[in-house]
C-alpha cells in the first residue's frame, strides 16, 4: 500500500486510507492552501451592504409591509442561523417588527422538519421568537400564480404570496439535474405545489443538458428560474463553498444577478480540469449526508470514470436510509417486470413520474440510480447495510480497505482520481459531456 489519502466524513472530519501498490493518482482534488476568510456574519453584512443588481436592504424594507424569509432545510448546508443573526438585526434596525416577518422553510416535497431540526437550522432564539412555517406542497390553501407565456399555473405557499418583500437564503452547489442548487430553487421547488413540481421534474430530468454544473440550455434550471421570476424574489442571499465544504463567499442581490455571480465563483472554487477519464474514482458524498441525498455524490465521479472502470464511494450519512425509499426499489422492479432502467426512462420520456404517489425527491434520487452510466460502484457507509446497498443496486464493502482490496484484483495498475468531497467537485473536461 502507498501514500495516505483522505475523504471528508463531515465538516473538518477526515477518513484516511492508503492506495494499493501499482495505482497511480492522476487527480487528488484537495483543497488549496488555507486563506483567512471572514466569519459568516461578516460576509453576510458585507453582502447586504452591496447587493448586486438590487436596491439596498434598507430601501427594500422601506416599501414593505410583510416580509417572507425563505430558507432551505437541513439537506442543504446553508448556515441560516448565522445569516439570520445579521439579517434580522438589520431588519429590526430598519424599524421592521417581528410580527410582520415570517420565516418559510422551503422544503419542497421533503419531509417536514422536527422541532430539533428547526432549532439546528435557524437557532433556538429565532424559532422561539419569530413565526416559522414549513411549506406543505399538498396543502389546500396554496395561492395561484400565472407563469408568463405558459398555460400552467403554479401554486405557492400563502405566506410567500401574501408578503410584499421576499428574501431567499440558499447554497449554490453543483446539482445533478438543475446544474446548480440554490438561487431560484429556493422558490421552485421550495415553496411550490406538488403537481407543478412533479410535472416539471418528470419532464426535464432526462434532458441531456439537465446535468451537473450545467445551466446554459438546461431546461430544468431555466424553468426553475422562470417560475421563480414569476413568483418574485426581491433579494437572493447565496452561499458559495470551498472544497472543504466551508462557506467562502456570500453573494446577495437580485435573483438572476446574484445567482450568476455565485455560479461564477462556485466554478472558480470547485472547478478541476480533466484531460482524460480514469479507471477508478474514490470519493466521499460530502456534503450530501442526509439520507438518499447521498446519490448526488455520484455525479462528478461518473463524469470522469471510464465505463469499464469503478467508483468507490464513501457515504457518511448522518441518518439511516428510510424504509419507504428502499421499498420503492421493489415497487419499480415489480412495475417494470424486472427491467427497471428501461421502465424509468420510458416513464420520464413521457413526462411522468415513475413513483407518482411518492415525493419527487424519491423519484429524482432513484433516477440517479437507474439512469446513471453503468459504471461499477462499491459503497462504504457507516449507516447503510449490505442488504440496503444491494437494494439500491450497489456493491457493498464494510470498509475502505475491503473496497480497495476488491478493486485491486480487477484494476492492478489503476489510474485514479480522489475526491475528498465529491459533492464539491466540478469536472472541467476535455471531452464533450
How would you characterize this protein structure?
The two termini are 34 Å apart. The protein is α/β, with parallel strands linked by helices and 433 residues long. The protein has helices at residues 40-49, 57-62, 80-93, 115-122, 124-129, 158-162, 194-204, 219-231, 255-270, 299-304, 323-335, 340-349, 360-371, 386-391, 400-410; strands at residues 4-10, 13-18, 24-28, 67-71, 101-105, 131-134, 143-146, 153-156, 165-171, 174-175, 179-180, 235-241, 247-253, 271-274, 278-284, 305-314, 376-380, 395-396, 415-419, 426-429. It is built from 15 helices and 20 strands. The protein is 34% helix and 24% strand. The model has no long low-confidence stretch (mean pLDDT 95).
- CATH topological fold name of the largest domain: Rossmann fold
Q: Widest sheet: strand order?
A: 3-19-15-16-17-18
Task: Please mark out the parts with pLDDT under 50 across 5 or more consecutive residues, or reply none.
Answer: none
Bulk shape: globular
CATH structural class of the largest domain: Alpha Beta
Structural class: alpha/beta
Report the sheet with the most strands, covering strand number, pairing sense and barrel closure. Answer: 6 strands, parallel
Indicate the proportion of strand residues: 15-25%
Amino acid at each position: 500500500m502507498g501514500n495516505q489519502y483522505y475523504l471528508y466524513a463531515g465538516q473538518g472530519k477526515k477518513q484516511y486510507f492508503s492506495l494499493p501498490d501499482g495505482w497511480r493518482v492522476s487527480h487528488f482534488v484537495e483543497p488549496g492552501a488555507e486563506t483567512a476568510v471572514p466569519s459568516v456574519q461578516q460576509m453576510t453584512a458585507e453582502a447586504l451592504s452591496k447587493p448586486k443588481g438590487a436596491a439596498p436592504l434598507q430601501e427594500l424594507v422601506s416599501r414593505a409591509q410583510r416580509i417572507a424569509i425563505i430558507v432551505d432545510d437541513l439537506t442543504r448546508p446553508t448556515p441560516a442561523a448565522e445569516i439570520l443573526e445579521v439579517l434580522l438585526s438589520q431588519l429590526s434596525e430598519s424599524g421592521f417588527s417581528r410580527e410582520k416577518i415570517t420565516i418559510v422553510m422551503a422544503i419542497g416535497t421533503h419531509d417536514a422538519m422536527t422541532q430539533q431540526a428547526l432549532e439546528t437550522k435557524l437557532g433556538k432564539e429565532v424559532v422561539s421568537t419569530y413565526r416559522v412555517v414549513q411549506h406543505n406542497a399538498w396543502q389546500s390553501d396554496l395561492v395561484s400564480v400565472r407563469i408568463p407565456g405558459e398555460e400552467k399555473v403554479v401554486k405557492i405557499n400563502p405566506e410567500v404570496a401574501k408578503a410584499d418583500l421576499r428574501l431567499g437564503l440558499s447554497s449554490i452547489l453543483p446539482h445533478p439535474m438543475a446544474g446548480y442548487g440554490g438561487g431560484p430553487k429556493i422558490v421552485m421547488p421550495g415553496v411550490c405545489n406538488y403537481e407543478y413540481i412533479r410535472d416539471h421534474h418528470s419532464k426535464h430530468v432526462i434532458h441531456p443538458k439537465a446535468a451537473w454544473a450545467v445551466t446554459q440550455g438546461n431546461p430544468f434550471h431555466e424553468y426553475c428560474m422562470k417560475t421563480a421570476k414569476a413568483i418574485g424574489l426581491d433579494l437572493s442571499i447565496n452561499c458559495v463553498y470551498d472544497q472543504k465544504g466551508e462557506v467562502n463567499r456570500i453573494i446577495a442581490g437580485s435573483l438572476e444577478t446574484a445567482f450568476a455571480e455565485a455560479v461564477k465563483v462556485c466554478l472558480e472554487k470547485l472547478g478541476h480540469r480533466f484531460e482524460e477519464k480514469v479507471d477508478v474514482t474514490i470519493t466521499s458524498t460530502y456534503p450530501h449526508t442526509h439520507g438518499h441525498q447521498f446519490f448526488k455524490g455520484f455525479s462528478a465521479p461518473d463524469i470522469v470514470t471510464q465505463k469499464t472502470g469503478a467508483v468507490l464511494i464513501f457515504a457518511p450519512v448522518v441518518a439511516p436510509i428510510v424504509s419507504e425509499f428502499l421499498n420503492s426499489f421493489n415497487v419499480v422492479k415489480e412495475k417494470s417486470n424486472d427491467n427497471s432502467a428501461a421502465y424509468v426512462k420510458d416513464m420520464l420520456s413521457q413526462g411522468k413520474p415513475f413513483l407518482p404517489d411518492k415525493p419527487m425527491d424519491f423519484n429524482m434520487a432513484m433516477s440517479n440510480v437507474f439512469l446513471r452510466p453503468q459504471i461499477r460502484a462499491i459503497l462504504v457507509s457507516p449507516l447503510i447495510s449490505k442488504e440496503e446497498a444491494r437494494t439500491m443496486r450497489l456493491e457493498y464493502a464494510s470498509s475502505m480497505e475491503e473496497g480497495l482490496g476488491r478493486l485491486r484484483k480487477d484494476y492492478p495498475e489503476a489510474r485514479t482520481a480522489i475526491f475528498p468531497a465529491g459533492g464539491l467537485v466540478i469536472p472541467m473536461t476535455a471531452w464533450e459531456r
